[in-house]
Write a structure and sequence with these properties.
The protein has 337 residues and is of the alpha/beta class. The protein has a domain of 228 residues: NAD(P)-binding Rossmann-like Domain (Rossmann fold), CATH 3.40.50. The chain is 40% helix and 19% strand. It contains eleven helices and 15 strands. It has a seven-stranded parallel sheet, sandwiched between helices. A two-stranded parallel sheet has the order 6-15. Helix 1 links the parallel strand 1 and strand 2. Helix 1 packs across helix 7 and helix 6 packs parallel to helix 9. The longest helix is centred in the first third of the chain and has 21 residues. It is globular. Bound molecules: nicotinamide-adenine-dinucleotide. The site of nicotinamide-adenine-dinucleotide has 25 residues, from helix 1, helix 4 and strand 5.
Length: 337
């Protein structure tokens, strides 16, 4: 089947496009190259442009009348930047997504898979249970996370009122690279924890900072659910293949599904796993939590199992090994360290 992938030049989008191809499908990429590098598009069908460009979306549908679903990944994604530049985040993630959804609905292309985020979940207080189901309370802590919650609500409302149909995937913490090392994290200074660890391991930073050691977790450090990006990409393939079946099973025009491994890993455990794969110790230092830091959460993945027949297959060590291998390879592909 043919699938429109907005944001298909990005980290997760390019790897999802590969997973679609491996399953025998054809991705059609729409990306403005705001951040995603052109090289990640490879030899795929590609339209360079904005998701809110209704004429362009119409042209894509006219040229590919056999598009069966849209995976909407295009977004601005940097949390601190969203605090500093809320206008750009609400405009691009909210207002532009609205135009896209309305245009798709008008063009008779109602199936939308939306990239949402675990950053929506309220942090459990006074408990040592960090597992969250899709029904857990939400409290998005940044403009970025609020754009995701808003679009979930928009999709629910549009699906209730129009022909639009939505599967909303709440990703936990994607890590790792494309299995063939054709794409991975491309930020010059990755801000997330594994990128920081790779930099410390490769001597590009003097030490890895463990931020926050007084959380109510088993070792005091923050807990996350790290899911290999290839497993995440495969979840999208399952969701587009089973789109109508999933919504029929829940009896609703839209549904939210957590995508994680179902296991929480603390920062200290991540460092230990990293050192095991890397084969050497990584210098670390400890620092107090920053304002707004949260202990974290991990996914209850029952719904993903039941509805998509999906569960993760790759381990955290696999993901770390692929992130390290990408760290060695990325200059060759991106042209910068
Ligand atoms: N990376 C994560 O940890 C994570 C976690 C949860 C959810 N998500 C969501 O997954 C999706 C993909 O994330 P990613 O890490 O691959 O990000 P990314 O920045 O690598 O990819 C986003 C892509 O969207 C494109 N884009 C942005 N605005 C656009 C517009 N208006 N029109 C067309 N293209 C546009 C960018 O050029 C980029 O290629 C995003 O929606 C993100 O919010 C990511």
């Amino acid at each position: 089947m043919k699938v429109l992938v907005t944001g298909g030049a990005g980290y997760i989008g390019s790897i999802t496009a590969k997973a679609l191809e491996e399953a025998g499908h054809v991705p059609v990429v729409l990306d403005s190259l705001l951040t995603g590098p052109h090289v990640f598009v490879r030899d795929r069908i590609f339209y360079e442009g904005d998701i809110a460009d209704r004429a362009l979306v119409t042209r894509i549908v006219e040229e590919h009348p056999d598009l069966e679903a849209t995976i909407h990944m295009a977004a601005r994604i940097v949390v601190p930047e969203s605090v500093a530049q809320p206008y750009e985040y609400y405009r691009d993630n909210v207002a532009k997504s609205l135009e896209l959804f309305d245009q798709l609905e008008q063009l008779g292309k109602p199936r939308v898979l939306f990239s949402s985020s675990a950053s929506l979940y309220a942090v459990p207080h006074g408990t040592d249970d960090f597992e969250v189901t899709e029904a857990a309370p939400l409290a998005p802590g940044s403009p970025y996370a609020r754009t995701k919650l808003m679009m979930e609500q928009v999709l629910e409302d549009m699906a209730a009122a129009t022909d639009l149909r939505a599967i909303i995937l709440r990703y936990f913490n994607p890590i790792g690279s494309d299995p063939d090392l054709e794409s991975g994290i491309y930020a010059k200074e990755p801000s997330h924890v594994l990128g920081q660890l790779v930099m410390a391991a490769r001597g590009q930073k003097d030490a890895f900072t463990i931020t926050g050691t007084d959380n109510p977790t088993r070792d005091g450090t923050g807990i996350r659910d790290y899911v290999h990006v290839w497993d995440l990409a495969r979840a999208h393939v399952r969701a587009v293949e089973k789109f109508d079946e999933v919504l029929a099973a829940v009896g609703e025009p839209s549904v939210v599904i957590n995508i994680g491994t179902g296991a929480g890993v603390t920062v200290r455990e991540l460092v230990a796993a990293f050192e095991k794969v890397f084969g050497r110790e990584v210098p670390t230092r400890e620092a107090p939590s920053r304002p707004g830091d949260v202990p974290g959460a991990f996914a209850n993945v029952d719904r993903a199992h039941e509805l998509l027949g999906w569960h993760h297959e790759l381990s955290i060590e696999d993901a770390i090994a692929s992130a390290l291998a990408w760290g060695e390879k990325r200059q060759e592909i991106l042209g910068y360290e």
